[in-house]
């Protein structure tokens, strides 16, 4: 992947915006292209009552990366919308930053499937998320 692809992807993602929830959770994209997208999220402020990163926070990071990557793949005049997401949590982060790496499993005309692997500061896998997005024509402006 070229630096140009990554910088153009980051510019596209920045211009589009991640949405209020992702911003509130402190998610930041560090790399963005159709082939690979990377984002980080702080553990602090996104924990459950016993101090572990909330399982739903992993899913928000995964859906933010996967849906945005699917929309970049969909292209102008098209829209990707999530139709299925699942997550398997295998370790609990308690501090620091987690990193999600999103890669495509399938990129078609009507369906995009991505896997997002979330690791802790030590590079240990904490969660594996798979998201399926349906790609359709964007609604006409009113």
The description of the largest β-sheet is: 6 strands, antiparallel
What's the arrangement of strands in the largest beta sheet? 1-2-4-5-6-3
Mean pLDDT: 94
Task: For the record, give the distance between the C-alpha atoms at the N and C termini, rounded to a whole number.
Answer: 38 Å
Order of helices and strands: HHEEHEEEE
SS content category: alpha+beta
Strand proportion? 35-45%
Helix-residue proportion? 25-40%
| DSSP, total strands | 6
Question: Which spans of ≥5 residues are poorly predicted at pLDDT below 50?
Answer: none
Helix segment tally: 3
How would you sum up the global shape?
Answer: globular
Radius of gyration: 15 Å
Organism: Microbacterium galbinum
Domain Thioesterase: 51-126
Keywords: Hydrolase
Protein name: Hotdog fold thioesterase
